[in-house]
Write a structure and sequence with these properties.
- By secondary structure, the protein is an alpha+beta fold.
- The protein has a single domain, classed as Penicillin V Acylase, Chain A, CATH 3.60.60.
- The protein is 29% helix and 23% strand.
- It has ten helices and 18 strands.
- An eight-stranded antiparallel beta sheet has the order 3-8-9-10-11-12-13-15, with helices on one face. The protein has a six-stranded antiparallel beta sheet with strand order 14-1-2-16-17-18. A two-stranded antiparallel sheet has the order 4-7.
- Strand 8 and strand 9 form a beta hairpin.
- It is globular and about 65 Å long.
- Pfam families: Peptidase_C69.
- It comes from Gasterosteus aculeatus aculeatus.
- InterPro entries: Peptidase_C69.
- This is Secernin 3.
- Belongs to the peptidase C69 family. Secernin subfamily.
Length: 418
């Protein structure tokens, strides 16, 4: 399987407007896969409690933070999300010299969710993920299918003050701190010689494999990739195009800028085909700790034809029913061995409405244009409302508890009229 997956972005002051961190990701997955957006409240857990992830059980911790996640409906983990402390994480598939065809273990998407549930800063998320990687490893197919689709993972992690890039190869890893400007990742290793944290045996392992001579300056990407970083910078790659779009808007990056980047089809960032953009996320995090973060999710494929809907963490956030897929519990074919013997219907309420409207947009140009205009108007109204709380803080907690769901209902109402 050739690399064919996501793009993740982060911009920090001075690249952004208004002293904010802007995080964004397109999740590119099999075109028939449903992505749900769910909210999970903070919880306390009993001693000895176990946590059932996609394929394996691990030890639970005493307390987990509230999270909002965009996730493939069939698995436990998440492609991207945020927590109540405004930590955001997205992961990418990466392939290198080390084989990814190991036993079932933690998926990269499991590590995204666990990092959000257990870390109140970006750096702590790096520590959480790498400790779990060392203890349990990463592995297992990443598609709801009998065929094996496996990869290692890179992660872009941000909080109110900085971002971290974490790249893995088996249990080995390197991490780079980003304290300003912008950064994007796609499906190749991109950490070079600036390494701020690393697996203690990462260099010696590479030397033992004959990948590094032990004398030349250590470049993680060159050593652990199939090829050098020249591949990453190649003209026409999504990584390169994403970097250009960030550079073009440097100093003026906003939520709208990030949404436009995620909608860009010419660059391939908004992917079409057998692998397509099945969910998108943009987060706006003020560096001022007294101000709330706003997290926008589509919960539907193709951001060009979707509404970015806001979510804000407050004391009593409601369950996100319209974007939660049906649950099959112990009867889910993912849980039974051999796995994936059937594929149940995982479409949530918003997905069903959106699927019909996307077909109308595709076939009827005039009606499609009108629907798209309505989508953009609704989205702009919500961004304007969110600008008020991003600037002045939260006044009405109760209103925000149902914010995302009310936006979903408004979107579905718009589709009903269409």
């Amino acid at each position: 399987m050739l690399p064919s997956s996501c793009d993740t972005f982060v911009a920090l002051p001075p690249s952004t407007e208004g002293q904010r961190v802007i995080f964004g990701k397109n999740s590119d997955r099999p075109c028939d896969e449903v992505q749900e957006v769910v909210y999970l409240p903070a919880r306390d857990h009993g001693a000895g409690e176990k946590l059932e992830c996609t394929y394996i059980e691990i030890e639970q911790v005493a307390h987990t933070y509230a999270v909002v996640l965009s996730k493939p409906a069939w698995l436990w983990g998440a492609e991207m999300g945020a927590n109540e402390h405004q930590v955001c994480i997205g992961n990418e598939a990466v392939w290198g010299r080390e084989s990814a065809d190991g036993d079932e273990a933690l998926l990269g998407m499991d590590l995204v969710r666990i990092g959000l549930e257990r870390a109140d800063t970006a750096e702590k998320a790096v520590d959480v993920i790498t400790e779990l990687l060392q203890k349990y490893g990463q592995g297992g197919t990443c598609m709801e299918d009998e065929c094996s689709f496996t990869y290692h993972n890179s992660f872009l992690i941000s909080d109110r003050k900085e971002a971290w890039l974490l790249e893995t190869s088996g249990k080995h890893w390197a991490a780079e701190r980003v304290e300003g400007g912008y950064r994007n990742i796609s499906n190749q290793y991109s950490i070079t010689t600036k390494i701020d944290k690393e697996h203690p045996e990462m260099r010696e392992y590479a030397r033992g494999q004959g990948w590094w001579d032990g004398a030349t300056p250590f470049n993680f990407s060159t050593v652990y990739s199939f090829t050098t970083t020249a591949r990453i910078e190649a003209s026409g790659s999504r990584y390169c195009e994403g970097k250009k779009l960030l550079e073009k808007n440097d100093g003026h990056i906003t939520a709208e800028t990030m949404m436009d980047i995620l909608r860009d089809k010419d660059s391939g960032i908004n992917m079409e085909g057998l692998f397509m953009t099945t969910g998108s996320m943009v987060s706006v995090i003020p560096t001022d700790p007294t101000l709330p973060g706003v997290h926008y999710f589509t919960a539907t494929p193709d951001p060009e034809r979707s509404v970015f809907k806001p979510f804000v963490f407050v004391k009593n956030n409601n369950e996100l029913k319209e974007t939660s897929s049906p649950s099959y519990g112990a009867d889910d074919p993912v849980k039974k061995k051999p796995r994936f013997q059937s594929k149940p219907d995982r479409k949530h309420a918003l997905f069903l409405k959106h699927e019909l409207v996307a077909a109308v947009i595709e076939v009827h140009e005039d009606r499609g244009k009108k629907i798209t205009e309505g989508i953009r108007t609704l989205e702009k109204e919500k961004r304007t409302q969110m600008e008020e709380i991003l600037t002045n803080g939260i006044v009405e907690q109760d209103f925000l508890a149902n914010l995302f769901s009310s936006c979903v209902q408004g979107e579905m109402g718009l589709y009903g009229k269409s």
